[in-house]
Amino acid sequence: MAINFDKALGIHPYALQARVQRSEILASNLANVDTPGYLARDYDFKAAMADVESQFNNSGSGFVPQLSMEAQYRVPYQPALDGNTAEMGVEQSKFNNNAMDFQSSLTFLNMKIQGLQKVIDGR
């Protein structure tokens, strides 16, 4: 009997990929925190995961879900006079939270792979 890795691993590889994409955009926000007119952006992680999950639930065999994430502009807590909407404290907090969530996603994926390894080894 063949193992379908896409179904066995579930949404965890997609969550990891989404966390990587989100860290890139948050790092961009941090790098441009002093750039006049820069507009901070972010991804809606929950919406992206809900989309992937619905694709999994509505798909047949052999279908590979697609991760689609669209960057959205963020409304600042305290607007700057130069039009920049990236705030250092907010960006650092979001980046750190995303890094912790990345570690959690990586741990879940690792646990899934270890479980599959046990099944393959017959343990």
Short descriptors:
123 residues, mainly alpha, two-stranded antiparallel sheet, 59% helix
Structural notes for this entry:
- This protein is mainly alpha-helical and 123 residues long.
- The chain has one domain.
- The protein is 59% helix and 3% strand.
- The protein is built from four helices and two strands.
- It has helices at 5-9, 12-31, 45-57, 88-121; strands at 41-42, 72-73.
- Strands 1-2 form a two-stranded antiparallel sheet.
- Structural component of flagellum, the bacterial motility apparatus. Part of the rod structure of flagellar basal body.
- One of its GO terms (cellular component) is bacterial-type flagellum basal body, rod.
- Pfam families: Flg_bb_rod.
Describe, in short, the structure shown.
The protein is mainly α. The protein is built from four helices and two strands. The model has no long low-confidence stretch (mean pLDDT 87).
Q: What structural class should be given to the helix and strand makeup? A: mainly alpha
Shape designation: elongated
Q: How many domains, in number, for the residues? A: 1
* N-to-C CA distance: 16 Å
Overall number of strands: 2
Strand content: under 5%
Poorly predicted regions are none
Give the radius of gyration: 18 Å
> Helix amount, in percent?
55-70%
Following the backbone from N to C, one meets helices and strands in this order, namely: HHEHEH
Biggest β-sheet strands, sense, barrel: 2 strands, antiparallel
